[in-house]
Design a protein that fits this description.
This protein has 193 residues and is mainly α. 53% of the residues lie in helices and 5% in strands. It starts with 26 loop residues before the first helix and ends with a helix.
């Protein structure tokens, strides 16, 4: 699914997921859904999704990434998504792929620290070089140098969730909040995968 899913990208894709409308199912989405729905149940679970998603290194997306994406679109909380939810996920993945490909200039299937810093800055985040190194190190546990597309999607979704939680508590828009321990834990648990 890494190769030819690209769709037009306008702005920060992380904000697009919650408000998609359900319309007619595109033939491309129907074809992908039929391919991914191995057991022909009319529903896709994270394992079926994982078998269809390949990152730039020819490896399947991680369990974490697939569970996160299913969970984002699983409106009835069954652990599966139907064709309408899959169409939303399909669009969402394409938006992230477009962002990733824009910064993976050497088409290696990875982005490195400077590329990640640029991508996050385009999304409106200005993180320190030390924080960018930390993000890369958390994603690339062996070499601490690069991030794959599935790791990038997970990171961006996590940053989006934490940013929304932070903004809801930053009523004065100062960029600083005071937070109690239980509130902190609730934010961390709600924003985790």
């Amino acid at each position: 699914m890494y190769g030819n899913l690209g769709s037009g990208y306008q702005g920060y894709p992380g904000g697009a997921a919650p408000g998609y409308s359900q319309g007619a199912i595109s033939p491309d989405v129907q074809q992908w859904f039929n391919t991914v729905d191995k057991d022909r149940s009319g529903q896709i679970n994270w394992q079926e999704l994982q078998s269809a998603l390949v990152n730039g290194q020819g490896k399947n997306f991680t369990d974490v990434a697939c569970k996160l994406m299913i969970g984002m679109f699983d409106r009835d909380k069954t652990g599966t998504i139907d064709i309408n939810e899959f169409q939303q996920l399909f669009t969402y993945i394409n938006q992230w792929l477009a962002v990733f490909k824009n910064y993976d200039r050497d088409q290696s299937g990875h982005i490195e620290e400077p590329e990640l810093a640029q991508a996050l800055q385009q999304m409106g985040f200005k993180f320190s070089p030390e924080f960018i190194k930390f993000l890369i190190a958390k994603s690339d546990l062996q070499n601490h140098k690069r991030m794959s597309v599935d790791q990038f999607i997970v990171l961006c979704v996590q940053i989006q969730r934490f940013t929304e939680a932070f903004r809801s508590r930053d009523s004065e828009m100062k960029g600083i909040i005071t937070i109690g321990f239980e509130d902190f834990l609730s934010v961390a648990i709600n924003c985790s995968i």
